Amino acid sequence: MQDANTATIPLAYERLDPETQRARAQAFLQLMQKRRSVRDFSPDPVPMDLIETIIRTAGTAPSGANKQPWRFVVVTAPDLKRRIREAAEKEERENYERRFPQDWLQDLQPLGTNWQKPFLEIAPVLIVMFKIDYGLDEEGRRIKHYYVNESAGIAAGMLIAAIHNAGLVTVTHTPSPMGFLREILQRPNNEKPFLLLPVGYPAADARVPDIRKKPLSEIMLVNPGLEA
What we know:
By secondary structure, the protein is α+β, with helices and mostly antiparallel strands. Helices cover about 40% and strands about 15% of the residues. The longest helix is centred in the middle third of the chain and has 22 residues, at about 80-100.
């Protein structure tokens, strides 16, 4: 129930019949089952209006107190992409050669990853997602944000789904630490790098690891703990 003092508008909603619901849900499942993390990109350009629509979709995500604590920075300039790749590879080389524990390296081995990230230059678009820890009013005073990580995570998931739905590919890249992204892209202190996504079309000879997703029986429980 809404508070009497809360401004509201009618919900835009059309209730579907169960068969239509099932058909739509199944079609979306089949679409998303084809989604893969891709590291082999074509340099072919992507229409900017398509990127804008994808980001607008991510921006519809729910967030704590509707603060929408995210910023999506689009990078297409070759010089910026080169600088990002160089900085990312510097951190990743340190990770692979010194920081990562041996069990982490062993878990990564089947995926064939290493510190080299050429896709950061080859992909026509980089989307750098920042989480906004707190807002600022016109006088520079802090505006509290709530559930920032959770809100940004939901928006990131919607962004990835929107990229795939548009017929493009990406890979979630989280070089650690990521402070260089804020420096290169000249973002303020209240914005923290959250995710780096190269976006584009797959290379003609693109290949992906042969992996399997967990079955429903391993990821879904119904009423656990309820007495029979």
